[in-house]
Amino acid sequence: MTCQVVYHNGNCLNTKKAYTNTCRLCIEVCPYQAISEYRQLDAQKCSECGACMAVCPSDGFVDVQIDKFYEYLEETNEIRLNCPKALPGGFEIPCLGMFDIDGWMTLILWAKKKPVTMLTGVCSACEDRTACSVSVQAFKQVHSFWPDHPQVYIQVRPDDSEVNKGPKGMGASKSFERNFSLDNWRQKSMKQVEHWLPNLTADQTYPIPKSRQSLLRALEKDEDDKIPFRVLSVSKMCTNCGVCASICPQGALQKTEEWDPDPAAKESPLEDKIVSQRLILEPQKCVHCNRCLEVCRIEALSYSTKMLNYRFLTGKVLIHEGSPLYCKQCGKRIFDNSELCLVCSTSDPKGRSSFFL
């Protein structure tokens, strides 16, 4: 038995950069316990509801037809989506639950240019209602920061006939299929192999999730468009340790260091050679995994929602500049707001910066 949902090991944050608190969002959200601790997907349990896709920040789990879906959004003159429980007539998606924040904002941006309608069954009576509720929460978050956004119409149109009782999966209506016809038999054969064995396509690795890529393409079409985006900010408490940049699995945070140009400083046994350090943020790469917030001991990092356009989202932003801290006594680098390192503070218990266990 095959499954439309596949696991991209190279995209998983746990694979990109090891971390003590491994990400388990996909495992915890799955209403059918179809994902093992090793991210193995049980096709017999999976309903393809898309909840794992919605919560995974880095495309660890994706639908094998996701590229076809994004092509449909861009090429069609009117976006009509329907779930398997609704009346057919548009592009069939596995479930409303597949949409994350970026997915909803993409639909909203397209709604400014052409009609966007989603047909659903009775979600409260559906076995995938847990996945739907996850996606609804994502939409509510978007709406709270962007209340005057263009309208996406959702209509409850359940299909009670037996015609639409086949397996789930993404697919276009007959009126649209011709736009995605394959050029030759070799391509058709490869497409059939991927349909039979979707895990063959599960070795893809890319730095920016496809939902974010689609969002950026929609945003690029109008320079005046702005969307709410959670941007990382740094407080004055920052000690310039640089751990946040080192732990970022997406490379969204980068640090640059300016060293003391004095030749005598290079030969000094002391470590105070870095005179300035900068933190650079690339918003388009940030998937809000919160690792940087978790690793910061002094809680100097936080998110703030701002309305950003395409230029700022795809650019590089200087969010902090400062100088590392060094022990006043021995000159070794320290990573908290104190004057002495651990060794010096414990050897001088009468000092102001004494450290006790």
Automatic annotation (TrEMBL):
Domain (4Fe-4S ferredoxin-type) ranges: 37-67, 228-258, 277-306
InterPro entries, per the entry: 4Fe4S_Fe-S-bd, 4Fe4S_Fe_S_CS, PSI_iron-sulfur_center
Keywords assigned by UniProt, alphabetized: 4Fe-4S, Iron, Iron-sulfur, Metal-binding, Oxidoreductase
UniProt GO MF annotations: 4 iron, 4 sulfur cluster binding; metal ion binding; oxidoreductase activity
Pfam family, one: Fer4
Cofactor annotation: [4Fe-4S] cluster
Function description: Ferredoxins are iron-sulfur proteins that transfer electrons in a wide variety of metabolic reactions.
Protein name in the entry: Ferredoxin
Organism the protein comes from: Desulfosporosinus acididurans
Gene: ndhI_2
